[in-house]
């Protein structure tokens, strides 16, 4: 090898390649970690209370007592359950100056240990490893190891941040909480509303039991309504934010907390709406194979024959129903497209302009199509007082309130004069009264720029 | 810490960890960037024209005048709008020898600033940061910082490449343009074709208004045709390339530009075809709940009763329709599979052989099934002169031309004798006449290899 | 540039940025690799037997003879087909001390060379490059280059591991083999079972030919059965593992090989089940547009009219069918959700607890819903001796065996007393008899921890 090649190589890198790493604990996690370290060229030595699992250890590793193992390496992964950490105190002198990596937080070992190996192998190259600690040096060493195992190490600050980090694996869909709660409450409300309006009303006024309609008819009223309302709730905060900026006359003022939190879960709101829309599609498509529907069609045909009447073709009805289905299909198609582009790997491959085009332009088009779909469903029954039962309007009318508000707000925001103002504000312009404190400074800077 | 561990650590790396980075501009982008830098252990100092937004700045950062801030750091991110860049000229002496990072191109700040923070937080670890510049040293420093923030830095060459880079975020689905234009033109053509053939023809010859059929019947003729044609357009360039290589007798000749461009957007062609196929499926599945269809079935049943006729069961029709639907479902199922494997995260997890197997073998099987589906739709009406109206054949017959051409070309290419030739060419073999210029050299090399 | 910045920069890194890399071979792969290297700032020199393809080479690269090119660089990529490797032996002296990178294994050049460029460009930043070799130094240099091209280099050990590595690109869905074979065998078995029970039975006993039902009716019996059985096969190994751990009284004993292999392909089993479930949904939804179904409904209506009977509404039937469809839709909806979360990019964004919640909790819920769906399909015909034909029970009854076993096993495992035991075992507890060998050691450790 010539001298040039020696200069080329980062020698310090080479050394840690051959370094020995110590793992306390021979459980699934310790073994998986050790295997991966060995594959990446590290030496691996296990520290264990006994030797009972030594047969299961990856080939090429060594096993010794905790104290002996600690002497062999500079970086020590503590892969035993936290309630057994006591033994570490007796090793205090052996651990002097070592980098101790506590991996327990990250994986909740012990609770689901049968699958930890699976989880670790699921960690594809490129997975992120969150690291926090007070020694920059120690962090760097762990980062180096993580990178050798093809993980992306992400420094999450000092040891004080560890508490937050430890909670991360215990979180269960934090951003999905609010949307799911809204969905559950809305579904329950709409369900009891249509239950009262249809099943109970029929029972009370006609004494007929049509409770079997709960399974499909009523579900297929609740699902589309929840879907439409949640889709519009997904676009409402953006519109509100626009009006707030107009009112404030500046973009340099924080939004209220509730609006911030709302905006953060827009994606989740949209995906829950899509799930309900998907169920609506399936519930609609099974209609013609339902027993009840076949029965009704059959009874109607027979009644026409017996009364010697003909089924008059109603051209308007043909237009109405076909438009109604067509809007629904196109809306759902676009909705699925929105869902696909919100997959992490797809949205990462879009640039900012493309992402905005899909999620904003196509999103509003979806909302428009779905709202039109609902209006066509109502058709001339809309606002018809006869369709009220016990003063309750049909459920679909309730579902139109939020989408219409969102669409009207958006319509106002895209009128040229309002749009111009919003754009200027978003480019940093501020209404005079708001900037009095630093107006002078701004002017000075503008002069410099001239 | 023992001496071994010191050797292990890359000290130069450690230093830049603690380095201070300067950000000019306290807007959304500047604040988000600063927060991320702080989290990664950098010191952050903001340079600002005033102090008005200092309350919004991330905790731990400092704010000072542009000149003072510039002195504190070696790397300076310029996160103000480009039209305000003027102030930089007055700082010329303070900026001497500094690395100035212009991030404006990358995100189009100013246009959509309300969402930049959202965009930056959307940038998951592993996102790619494109860098260009003339100083390898400066680029390396920015690369280091990007990597500390867990982005993948991608060197895109010298400053001359910056113009191209600046256009990247302004691109709106460049590879989708051609497929979408083809889809729109094809849809419009087929739509007007079937409009003429069905609605206008009926109006002219029978005086009946069946315009309501536009919404579903006609849409459901246009969508499957566009889907099938575009699916075959997705496989046509590969077949053409094979024949071109056979004709050229070598693979060492560039394909014509139009073929290159066509081959580059095959994935997009296929996905647009899938979207149209998806709409076709939904339009087909709503058929039985359409008012018009229920009306026709009802009228037919009543007419049978009145005429005292029975509905003779036609075994051939049962076979034909069931096969027709079955081919369609299987074709669509495979098509969805192709779509899923073209998701970035899925296709990245396939090796080359698997990717080829799915996209080529299964792709051709999909095309075969969908073509068979269309042939079964035509059945004995196929090429039947009675189905012509105003000399216009049924639309589905038009849709079969391209798929049949593709399938025939593929059939030729996979016949053993042709396949052998193509494989040899693709392994580097060249027809004699083509290599006369360097035939001697080739022979010499072949002798060496013996 | 001030001294501070010099210290900050890793100089050895800077040098290799400007280094020249040699590529033997000017084919598609060599050209694509060279372009990418040039873009990343490397010098590129091609070694070629002739100069015939020099016009196609990326701008900025040089071309010379193999020997001359070898002298220009320290790292040499050998991008010619393996059967032409002979020429390397004549260059032995020129290659002394060089790092020779054999990329041939990785991409099977020569077989599909027309698409290699496409494949290389498909390799997004972050793609993994597997490296093995005996010289740590050489490996580090190749790793550096790979990282400069924004690939993640993954060290796969010494040269002995190369054989395994060479097989990687030849693998064709290794983890899908078992699930697909199970699916094919099951489908074939169920298909011939229902063929005998329905078509052949009808032919033999009534002399009627209903073979047309193969296309949809029979397929729609086979697909849901295969889907349900495979979904339950996906959860069976986990339940078995729980019982095995209970029986062993420890988790520190390897599962038998067949169970390990089974557990490794659970995801694939589930996805194949989902694909069959998807086909089942489509086959079910086309039912009402089938010729045969329309015929039967028509005949039934006419017979009612002629016999002057009315279609009595059966409230129980309405409940039964609607519940049946509803369970199916909800089960399928959840199943699709499971499928989406198993996409690499989605499952990577979940933490361990979320992943387990979806794949285990929601997975069992899906299984429960789909099993209920099947029971409701059977309804009172279930275990009815009249539904046996030639002693063969209806096919759906067969399909319920495995799901019921899995659900019963799971039910046992989640009863409080069993669950407590399993949890303790999974946290490392071992039954007394099993730990006699190292019981003393354990006790000592427990004393230390107190």
In short:
Three copies of one chain form a homotrimer. By secondary structure, chain A is α/β, with parallel strands linked by helices. Chain A is built from 21 helices and seven strands.
Keyword list:
homotrimer; 450 residues; Rossmann fold; 2 domains; 7 strands; 6% strand; elongated; disordered C terminus
Describe the structure.
- The structure is a homotrimer of 450-residue chains.
- With 450 residues, chain A is of the alpha/beta class.
- Chain A has two domains: 3-170, NAD(P)-binding Rossmann-like Domain (Rossmann fold, 3-Layer(aba) Sandwich); 174-279 and 314-434, no CATH class.
- The first copy, chain A, has 21 helices and seven strands.
- Chain A has a five-stranded parallel beta sheet, with helices on both faces.
- In chain A, α10 (174-206) packs parallel to α13 (266-285), α11 runs antiparallel to α13 and α11 (219-248) packs across α20.
- Residues 1-17, 105-126 and 435-450 of chain A have low confidence and may be disordered.
- Chains in contact: A-B, A-C, B-C.
- At the A-C interface, α1, α2, α7, α13 and α14 of A face α2, α8, β7, α11 and α13 of C.
- Chains A, B, C: It is found in: Endosome membrane.
- Chains A, B, C: It comes from Labeo rohita.
- Chains A, B, C: It is a multi-pass membrane protein.
- Chains A, B, C: It catalyses: 2 Fe(2+) + NADP(+) + H(+) = 2 Fe(3+) + NADPH; 2 Cu(+) + NADP(+) + H(+) = 2 Cu(2+) + NADPH.
- Chains A, B, C: Pfam families: F420_oxidored (PF03807), Ferric_reduct (PF01794).
